[in-house]
Every structure is written in C-alpha cells, then in structure tokens.
Amino acid sequence: MAMHPRPASVYGLPTDIGAAHRGASMGPEALRVARLVEAIAKRGVDIRDEGNLGGPRNPLSKPVDGYRHLDEVVAWNRAAMSMSARILGEGRMPIMLGGDHCLAMGSITAVADHCRAIGKKLRVLWLDAHADFNTRDITPSGNLHGMPVACLCGLGPKELVGLGKHAPALRPDQIRQIGIRSVDAGEKRLVREYEIDIYDMRYIDEIGMRRVMEEVLDGVDADTHLHVSFDVDMLDPGIAPGTGTRVPGGVNYREAQLMMEMIADTGAMGSLDLVEVNPALDKRNATAKLAVDLVESLFGKSTLMRD
C-alpha cells in the first residue's frame, strides 16, 4: 500500500522500574546507538527525537501489598501518557522506547483516550512472550511489568487503572497477543475469563505466521488505529538475547519480518512501543540492532522485491 508515512516522534523512558532485572533502563540509548532514528528517517518519515523523559530512580525495594515500586511506576507512566498525548495532539506518531513493559500502560492509555476523542477504532497488538495479565493476587513476584494488560483492562491498583480519562482504558476485545509462550497458572484462568485473543507459539507453529497475522489484522480498516506494543522477548532468545525474561522457542527472524511487513501493509499503525531491550544482557547490541531492523519493516522496508 503506497502511502506517505505519517510524521513520528521518538522518546525514551530510561527505567527498569517494573522489571526483575536491572538494565532495561539502558534500552533507549542502545536503540539510538543501533541507529533507530536514522533507520526510520531513511523510510521517508519526518522523525523527531524528543530525548528521554525523567522520573524517579529504581529504589529496588520489596513489594508492598503485592506491588513493587507502585508510586514510581505511576510517575513514569504518567510521564509516558502525557508525552504520547502531546505527540498525538500534534498529529504525529508516538514511538516510546523503554524501559520495561510496564510503561505501555501510559503510552496505550494516551492512545485509547485519543481514539475515543476522535472516534477511531483502536486495536492493540501485544507482541510478547508473556501475557502480562497478572494481578497482585496471582503475581509470583510483584513486578509490575507482568501486569500492564490486566491494568489496562481494569484489573489493578486504581492509580494505574485510572491513569487516563476513561477507566478501564481498553476492552479485552481490542487486544491481540502474539508470540505468547509463558503464562502463569493464575494468569491462564484470568485471560480465559477475560477472553483475551492469544496467538501463542503453538498456534503459530500449527497454522503459520501468515494466517495468524491475517486473523490478527482481520477487520483493520482506514478507521482503525493500530498500536504495536513490541517486547523484544517475543523473539527467540537465540536471535535476541538482550532481554531480562528470556523464554526459549520464540518467534524467528523470518516470522518476525513477515509479521512486521503485514502490519506495515495495513497502513494503520498509529503508535509504537519498543521495550525490554537490555544491553547489559546482550551480545554486541545485537538485540537492539535486530529491533531496529524489524522497525524498518514496520515502516515499509520490504525484504522482498516488492518495493
């Protein structure tokens, strides 16, 4: 689909406030070092780098009432929400560089408010090894990067569920999860109860990535805002070792390329999160470089002779 790409603005959230491992705080810089901004510009996109936002440091404290670092997580997510809202208000595409995946609560809440305000349909593609649908009652750790989807759907502390103008920010039927292969026992029950649409690795193996993406993108039209929330741990750790919660058996390079190209073909992507790149666990920044490569495909770079 030939269309002029919409302008975009990148911003970083250098924190690992919601994660178990330190180091995702270095993700935004690792992505810049891998020339993310230049790669997007090369696709003909008018792109600005807004730099990094600040927020509270990681106190490394134990969970309180089932949540670790709740006040700090709220502060970082408010920052993400207001920045994404500002960028959307300028008619641009927000690209949030994490940091850990708890930060998607802020970016997605801003997108959900924006879509309600302009009367657009919203579909969230959650690309991840994990369903991130924990609550304080079932979490094994209290780490909030395991809870953002639950919070966005109304299950969580009121400070996070009520971040935006509407609570909950999302309905479960607006979410498609792809690449899932690690779900806690309590989470399994909840995602079934909430009828979250999950395309796990077994399903991808059974029917193939092309048919999975056809199902995921079914009904996406000119009136749809696609939000892509890309956790690099969706990818197989053999190609993306630089992330804190590695799970074997993930999406391979060719599957990931096809996924991104099919998303690009819709012309509907309106916002993007790129999270959980942890250069402290990486080999020569390979994970950030691979993420940049895949983002180029999201912006229309084809691996084939179709350009």
From TrEMBL:
Mn(2+) binds at H101, D128, H130, D132, D231, D233. GO terms for molecular function: arginase activity; manganese ion binding. It comes from Solilutibacter silvestris. PANTHER family: ARGINASE (PTHR43782:SF3). Pathway: Nitrogen metabolism; urea cycle; L-ornithine and urea from L-arginine: step 1/1. Keywords: Arginine metabolism, Hydrolase, Manganese, Metal-binding. It catalyses: L-arginine + H2O = urea + L-ornithine. GO terms for cellular component: cytoplasm. It is an enzyme of class 3 (hydrolase). Its cofactor is Mn(2+). GO terms for biological process: arginine metabolic process; urea cycle. Belongs to the arginase family. This is Arginase. Pfam families: Arginase (PF00491). It comes from the Bacteria. Its EC number is 3.5.3.1. Binds 2 manganese ions per subunit.
